[in-house]
Amino acid sequence: MPASTPDNQIPPGMLAGMPGRPHWSASEAARRCGVGRATIQRALTAGRIPGAAETEKGWSIPLEGLLAAGFFPDRPTAPDQSPSTTPDTDREHDRAPATTNSEHARRIAELEQALDLEHARADLEHAHRIAAEQLAAERAERVADLRHALRMIEAAPQTPEPPEAAPPTTPPAPNPHRWPRFLNRVLDR
User: Fold this and answer.
1) Each residue's pLDDT tens digit, 114-139
2) DSSP string over 123-179
């Protein structure tokens, strides 16, 4: 497949080489697919139907192109539904709106208010999450500090410290007046 062809499109040369494959006009394709001609026309204008070619008589739309674009020609309906009662989901956007512009404006205002409220809730939740993460980090740091302090306490020696040695004492200096009295007493005896 050439690089310039999108994945959902069939190369033009491939369709030309398939004789006998059905090609329909826009009206016939719309009728067979159960959609409006405007729906097929919008798909053609948007280039969503691969292999479709505009001729002097109108459009030539291949079956493969309709299938690739998501249309299903000649699909049978359920037995309990007739084609006239089958809801046409492809044409829902073609119907006139049931609400007025003021109702739309009111609904848009309600939705914008709800969106603002949800944004505020999300911002608050984000702030709570950040605060909780910071608190958890601080607590984890505090626990690590306490574990470190406990290890230091447990690693200290358990033997009692020796008592401090008393400072060395020097003998008192002799009293010069005392010796003569002492000697006098000894000699008098």
Assistant:
1) 999 999 999 999 999 999 999 999 99
2) HHHHHHHHHHHHHHHHHHHHHHHHHHHHHHHHHS--SPPPPPPPPPP-PPPPPTTHH
Which residue, among 25, 13, 7, has the nearest Cα to 62 in the 3D structure? Answer: 25
Hey, is 31 helix, strand or coil?
A: helix
What does the alpha-carbon distance between residue 7 and residue 1 come to, in Å, rounded to a whole number?
9
Which residues partner with 54 through β-bridges? 59
What span, in angstroms and rounded, lies between the C-alpha atoms of 146 and 33?
Answer: 76
Three-state secondary structure call for residue 184: helix
Percent of the chain with pLDDT over 70: 66
